[in-house]
Amino acid sequence: MTDVLILMGSDSDWTVMKKAADALKEFGVTFEAHVSSAHRTPEKTLALVKGFTGACIIVGAGAAAHLGGVVAAHTVRPVVAVPLNSTPLAGLDALLATVQMPAGIPVATMAVDGSKNAALFALSIIATGDQSLRDRLEEYRAKMAAEVEAKDSKLQKLLREG
Ligand code: RP5
Fold it and tell me: Which residues line ligand 1 (CB under 6 A)?
């Protein structure tokens, strides 16, 4: 059983969605990733969702982007969606189609192209039942904070030196 299922509407989505896969890898969380479209391969999408027994599903899709809603309609597992910038509307189309889900079927929507946060959000969900993963997420944030502090020290030094 893998922890996370990543679905994307097209292989053209992989460049962005790979960042989610990389973040999951970094935390040692297992995943499978598939190209499966809500409208081009609806039966395959349904089979993948119904067959998934892990914790969380991440979807990435551009354009009308109903993949998140369609996936969420078939599972009560948490669905985290990444609206993708893949049309002349620069992701606004995908964002609105995903974030404005009617009440009853929630889809947790990240920023346009926000695939890394999708992985981190999925990790937070999994971490509710996994102390060691929770600790690693705390360490990750502490490291980020230290990096910001280092950048500020550098800026302060520059300002002092005029
Ligand atoms: C969506 O249409 C996909 O998620 C992709 O972002 C967009 C364009 O797909 P391709 O024409 O590149 O296959 O379904």
Answer: 8-10, 12-13, 37, 61-63, 84, 86
* In the predicted structure, residue 127 carries a pLDDT above the cut 90: yes
Query: Is the domain of 125 the same as that of 135?
Result: no
Dist. CA 80–CA 148, nearest whole Å: 27
Look at ligand 1, atom 13, and give the residue with the nearest C-alpha.
Answer: 10
Mean of pLDDT over the chain: 97
Q: Do 86 and 13 belong to one domain?
A: yes
10 C-alpha to ligand 1 centroid (Å): 5
Quick one: pLDDT at residue 64? 87
Q: How many residues does the chain have?
A: 162
Q: Could you tell me if 123 and 24 are in contact, meaning their C-beta atoms sit under 8 angstroms apart?
A: yes
Residues 110 and 160 in one domain: no
Does 32 share its domain with 91? yes
